[in-house]
């Protein structure tokens, strides 16, 4: 079906200024992505999948300006973690600030460098997982990213990575509009941790495609930066082979608009996927977690744990689905989305869904929205804990189940201390 | 130590007067017991002293070591030396018992301008005190009161009291739901803390507890007032005859 003229025009205007390289394997992948995008058009508020989050500022030709925030009151996140740093400044690779892209057990290349070749392992990943993720729900902004990403990293994990690979996104220009695309391929039995942090740009589009082969292990922890006015739309597409492990945790503090999509396919038996998020927002904050987990094999386990702390009119959204395909017996699926509303101005919109086509499965989901427990608060205060500290303890307790999804204790502690810092700064 | 004068309290949300002029003075070193029928206002009295919201003091005062309690925040009352062992201890999922205890101890020390306890010292002290109350390491690690039995919750209250070393301890039906052994543990815990500088107000229905924790003074509370005050023999009278005689006598 041809797209209505208005939608065609809107798309043409949006992509007119974007760079599109036709060379090499990447050029071919981009061409396919552009075809997908052209068939879908850009998302609109009336689309079912965008009912709770207005995509207008994400589809606009110009990125709305966003002030740069200088977080000089705490050390940068992951600072104490030994890692290979790869820095992008408003979406542009910064070689001086980055480490050598060398790590035992891992091959790291930049997309902008590797794209021109005729053949590359990433050809089987780039745009491929994204394309699979377009069914049954369309994700045009991910296709746009695949077509027009200016850079990114291609990470091939062949062994046990000696340390995490850390992607650092610096935001310096008030009008920057960055599009990055990463591919990660974890070979059979290999293991890696990917860290991501920073606000990246005034408007940031990022796709990460992750293929985890049999028995491979992928860990991902990200902190989206403290800039108040930045906007971001991110997608992570993952496909897991038999016995593979995928764990992703995201901390979001501040940001005027964030849409984080995770699309995960458990394709091999006994694969395990956990995706979790802790979001804390005060005031102009709209945070959307949209998750789609497909169980396509037997005895797989999936967990979705999303917690949001909202105040002063902040809005949280959760759209999460577990799809259990025919034959995916002994599926163990769990989903929880909860919000803690610190006042009556904030709101949480949740759409949890289960769609099950196998008979021998265990799936549970729950969604709650509540205020701070006044009785617990009084109990803590009656023992001498000052009100603000007591409240922080209870908020951290509320977030604990999401933070517990981070396996590495040092990283978890770092994330916890960020949350403590945020809570201390946002006491009123 | 604790001086309550003509205390009148109503519910904030409703026009319901609960305490109708309570007078009570507990001196340092003394143990007072309050007995009385259900609904007479015993828990309300303890909550109001600890600073729980939802109540409105319409008249009267309550001083702790000369300081007006009713104007302080709950945490300030705690730092000033007040402790309430709750009738229904609160479960707090996600907050470790140990974290809770340490945060509380150090918050009070900080509020009093004292040095915070180091992690090592704290651990040593808490282990020793927990052992006396038969609280094992596993219970210390678990979230506050979550999955604790009724008796474990009450022992946990006493552990908190032992760690915080308050000047004025109020125990609200700490004995209810305890078996004989647990009652002994709790009483021993309380007795270990008895000294010249500390006072206790023990709310109970039963003589049983008062066999272990010998009170100096016993008060009977009914319909928001202390209607009779006497020695330990008053508790025995209640044990034998119930409240009916005393209520009739007062009316
Ligand atoms: N928060 C409250 N809301 C409604 N009624 C209350 C509240 N607190 C106390 N009351 C009422 O006040 C009276 C005294 O209760 P309480 O202090 O718990 O008595 P006791 O501890 O002596 O059994 C009872 O009638 C009780 O229902
Ligand atoms: Mg009571």
Describe this structure in words.
The complex is a heterodimer of chains A (428) and B (251). With 428 residues, chain A is of the alpha/beta class. Chain A is built from 9 helices and 20 strands. Chain A has helices at 5-15, 24-40, 56-59, 111-114, 128-132, 140-148, 374-382, 387-403, 409-425, and strands at residues 84-89, 92-93, 102-103, 106-110, 153-157, 165-170, 177-186, 191-197, 203-212, 217-223, 231-240, 245-253, 257-266, 272-282, 286-295, 301-311, 315-324, 332-341, 347-356, 362-370. A 10-stranded mixed sheet of chain A has the order 2-1-6-8-10-12-14-16-18-20, covered by helices on one side. A 10-stranded mixed sheet of chain A has the order 3-4-5-7-9-11-13-15-17-19. In chain A, strand 1 (84-89) and strand 2 (92-93) form a beta hairpin. In chain A, helix 2 packs antiparallel against helix 6 (140-148), helix 7 (374-382) crosses helix 8 (387-403) and helix 8 (387-403) runs antiparallel to helix 9. The longest helix of chain A is centred in the first third of the chain and has 17 residues, at 24-40. The N and C termini of chain A lie far apart (52 Å). The model of chain A has no long low-confidence stretch (mean pLDDT 96). Chain B has 10 helices and 12 strands. Chain B has helices at 42-50, 74-79, 97-111, 119-132, 137-141, 150-164, 180-193, 207-212, 233-241, 244-250; strands at 2-11, 17-26, 31-35, 55-64, 67-68, 82-85, 92-96, 143-144, 168-172, 199-203, 217-222, 225-230. In chain B, the strands form 3 sheets. Chain B has a 6-stranded mixed sheet, with helices on both faces. In chain B, a hairpin with a 2-residue loop joins strand 11 (217-222) and strand 12 (225-230). The two termini of chain B are 31 Å apart. The chains are: A alpha/beta (428), B alpha/beta (251). The interface between A and B is medium-sized, with 23 and 30 residues. The structure holds adenosine-5'-diphosphate (ADP) and magnesium ion. The site of magnesium ion has 5 residues of chain B, from helix 1.
């Amino acid at each position: 079906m041809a797209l209505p003229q208005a939608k065609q025009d809107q798309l043409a205007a949006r992509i007119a200024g974007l760079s599109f390289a036709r060379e090499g394997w990447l050029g071919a992948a981009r061409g396919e992505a552009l075809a997908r995008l052209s068939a879908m058009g850009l998302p609109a508020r009336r689309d079912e999948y965008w009912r709770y989050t207005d995509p207008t500022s994400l589809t606009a030709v110009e990125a709305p300006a966003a002030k740069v925030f200088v977080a000089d009151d705490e050390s940068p996140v992951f600072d104490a973690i030994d890692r290979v740093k790869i820095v992008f400044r408003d979406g542009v690779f910064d070689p001086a600030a980055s480490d050598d892209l060398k790590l035992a057990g891992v091959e790291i290349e930049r997309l902008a460098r590797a794209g021109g070749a005729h053949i590359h392992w990433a050809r089987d990943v780039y745009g491929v997982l994204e394309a699979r993720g377009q069914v049954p729900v369309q994700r045009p902004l991910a296709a746009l990213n695949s077509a027009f990403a200016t850079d990114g990293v291609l990470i091939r994990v062949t062994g046990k990575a000696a340390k995490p690979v850390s992607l650092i996104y610096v935001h310096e220009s008030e009008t920057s509009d960055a599009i990055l695309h990463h591919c990660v391929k974890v070979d059979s039995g290999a293991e890696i941790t990917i860290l991501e942090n920073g606000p990246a740009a005034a408007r940031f589009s990022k796709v990460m495609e992750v293929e985890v082969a049999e028995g491979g292990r992928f860990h991902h922890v990200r902190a989206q930066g403290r800039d108040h006015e930045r906007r971001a739309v991110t997608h992570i597409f993952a496909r897991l082979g038999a016995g593979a492990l995928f764990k992703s945790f995201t901390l979001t503090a501040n940001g005027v608009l964030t849409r984080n999509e995770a699309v995960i396919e458990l394709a091999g038996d006994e694969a395990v996927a956990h995706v979790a998020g802790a979001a804390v927002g005060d005031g102009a904050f709209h945070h959307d977690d949209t998750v789609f987990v497909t169980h396509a094999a037997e005895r797989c386990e999936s967990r979705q744990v999303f917690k949001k702390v909202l105040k002063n009119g902040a809005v949280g959204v959760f759209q999460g689905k577990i799809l259990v395909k025919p034959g995916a017996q002994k599926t163990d699926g769990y989903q929880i989305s909860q919000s803690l509303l610190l006042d009556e101005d904030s709101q949480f919109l949740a759409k949890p869904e289960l769609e099950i086509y196998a008979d021998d499965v265990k799936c549970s989901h729950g969604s709650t929205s509540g205020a701070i427990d006044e009785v617990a608060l009084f109990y803590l205060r009656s023992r001498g804990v000052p009100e603000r500290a007591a409240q922080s303890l209870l908020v951290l307790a509320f977030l604990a189940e999401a933070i517990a999804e981070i396996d590495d204790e040092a990283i978890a502690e770092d994330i916890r201390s960020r949350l403590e810092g945020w809570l201390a700064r946002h006491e009123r | 130590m604790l001086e309550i004068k003509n205390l009148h309290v109503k519910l904030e949300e409703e026009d319901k007067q609960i305490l109708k002029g309570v007078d009570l003075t507990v001196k340092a070193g003394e143990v007072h017991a309050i007995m009385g029928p259900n609904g007479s206002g015993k828990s309300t009295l303890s909550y109001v002293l600890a600073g729980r919201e939802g109540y409105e003091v319409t008249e009267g005062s309550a001083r702790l070591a000369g300081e007006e309690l009713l104007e302080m925040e709950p945490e300030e009352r705690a730092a000033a030396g007040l402790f309430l062992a709750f009738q229904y201890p609160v479960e707090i999922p996600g907050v470790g018992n140990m974290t809770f205890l340490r945060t509380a101890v150090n918050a009070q020390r900080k509020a009093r301008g004292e040095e915070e306890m180091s992690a090592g010292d704290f651990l040593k002290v808490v282990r020793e005190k927990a052992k006396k109350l038969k609280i094992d390491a596993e219970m210390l690690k678990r979230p506050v009161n979550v999955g604790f039995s009724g008796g474990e919750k009450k022992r946990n209250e006493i552990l908190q009291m032992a760690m915080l070393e308050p000047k004025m301890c109020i125990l609200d039906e700490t004995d209810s739901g305890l078996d004989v052994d647990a009652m002994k543990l709790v009483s021993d815990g309380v007795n270990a803390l008895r000294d010249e500088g500390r006072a206790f107000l023990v709310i109970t229905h039963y003589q049983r507890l008062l066999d272990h924790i010998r009170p100096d003074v016993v008060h009977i509370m009914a319909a928001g007032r202390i209607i009779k005050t006497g020695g330990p023999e008053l508790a025995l009278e209640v044990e034998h005859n119930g409240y009916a005689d005393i209520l009739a006598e007062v009316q």
